[in-house]
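Kindly go through the following sequence and its backbone structure tokens. Advise at your convenience whether the structure tokens fit the sequence:

___
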Amino acid sequence: MFNKKLVDTRTQPVARTGDAAPRFSDSDLYSLAEKHGTPYFLVDEATLRKKVSEMEQGFSEYKGVFRVAYSVKANFNPSVIKAFASEGILFDLTAPSELTFVLKSGGSAENVMYTSITETASEYEQVLKAGVRKVVVASYNGLVNLAEAAARANIKVKTMIRVNPEVHVHAELRGSMGHGKFGLQFNGGSPDSALYVLKKILGTPLLGFEGFHFHLGSQIEDPACYAEAIEKLEAFILGARRQLGDFRVSTLDIGGGLPVPYGRKVPTPKDLGTKIVGQLNSLVESIGDRFTLVAESGRFLTAESTVLVTRVVNVKSFGDTKYIYVDAGYNVLLDSALLRHEYPVEVVPGGRPSPQKIALVGRLCDPLDVFPISSRSKLGGASVGKLVVFREVGAYSLVMNMPFHSQPRPPVLMRNGQGSYFVARKAHDVEKLYADEGGDCLPS
């Protein structure tokens, strides 16, 4: 799962991860380590808000209303959700449990776009009861279940269709492909096609057709896939109107995919917006509807806001390699194992580059617990007691923490907009972990 290739840091340049990446002083990092122990996650609220602004600026040339939507699956820490809720953005949810987090953290049901994967009648009943009125369907069976739930509750639901444009996407994770898990094909001659589902929505009194949604993938650096998807959607809308009569498109959600740097140069939201907003404006003219444009993000909005702070607990030399042991393992950076992310990492305070190759290893008794290292990392000067900081870990890391080796979850700290630090998630106590794992279920 991990990249076992060792990184030679003798000649590698050190680079910051971008203007949006937060800077924490060495003294603050050490003070927090003394107070809360290591490892710990540290979130910067100002960066969360700045990323929202970057997305809004990136699509500022769109002629209609543009809305940012946060995909809660990336990081459902209540403090993170609260910060985004205060920005007035939308929330993209896939489960009733996520809705609970949003509502309890200051979000409102009217700002929720519910995109279920399982599309069961029971979950639709739950979210409609809680006030959600905008739902995305991606199967005929899901449409039937939503219609039944709406009828039982006597609620009018703004219904969107998730389509799979089946375009080629060069990305880390692809969400659009032939016969994929997500969305409906435009025209397939079966009930599970966008044309068939659209016809049923238009004929169902309590389901008001709202628009379309697609999601192409994650870490998309080439906007050509968006251009192709928009072109296909335009052709579908015009063709569907010829067959079904006129219908209004009120919302178009183009999904996520904005790339995070992870220590290297990638296109910005402005780069993407510049290349596709013109086509979106042309789509408005073509179909005659000034729809609300929505762009989603989970990773882009949260990744750069957060660092993982660990401590060097041991070092050793083996041949021409220096092994740096930290007190965290892939149990707190599981996405690094699954997706082989090479996070920018640096020793605090740093020192001269090591004449040896560097291996950064975790505390788990597993030969795969070796962290991939970005070529822009700075690991010179590592010695026992110093801190090692993993940057840009705000997306998926917190939500994937697991108790491998009976390891409790580390605390999550946040620096608010006024520069003060507070606990955003308490450390998971080992006694509580024991109880949660069934220790309190043992027969006496």
Summary: The first strand starts at residue 7 and ends at 8. Residues 224-244 form the longest helix (21 residues).
